[in-house]
Amino acid sequence: MKNRILIKLILSLTILVTGCAIEATKTVPIEYITGQTQYHKVCANCHGADAMGTSKAPKLIHERYNKENFSNGKIAKTILRGSSSGAMPAQKTKVTETDIKEIIKYLRYSQKK
Hints:
The chain is mainly alpha-helical and 113 residues long. It has a single domain, classed as Cytochrome Bc1 Complex, Chain D, domain 2 (Orthogonal Bundle), CATH 1.10.760.10. The chain is built from 5 helices and no strands. It has helices spanning 2-19, 33-42, 44-47, 72-81, 97-112. The N and C termini lie far apart (54 Å).
């Protein structure tokens, strides 16, 4: 009986840990991999794989978020403090300044593609 419970627990944890991760679907050049990895750790749950959006949050591969319309500083501020509307929570406890720079670099690359 204890073995059956243990097996069920292990299977449940395995599904929980591996089944919830949102994986990248696009291959990027090596200089963008760190940003892609950080994006998928911090942002993809809401903004979707490869920044293509979900029902929770908009896609970031959109002209509204291009550099001309949404500066790198504004992206960094939004990541740290959340959105002014309150729809996006602050992520300041989940990222470093370097992480943010890499995420922005990855997003800008993705927007060009």
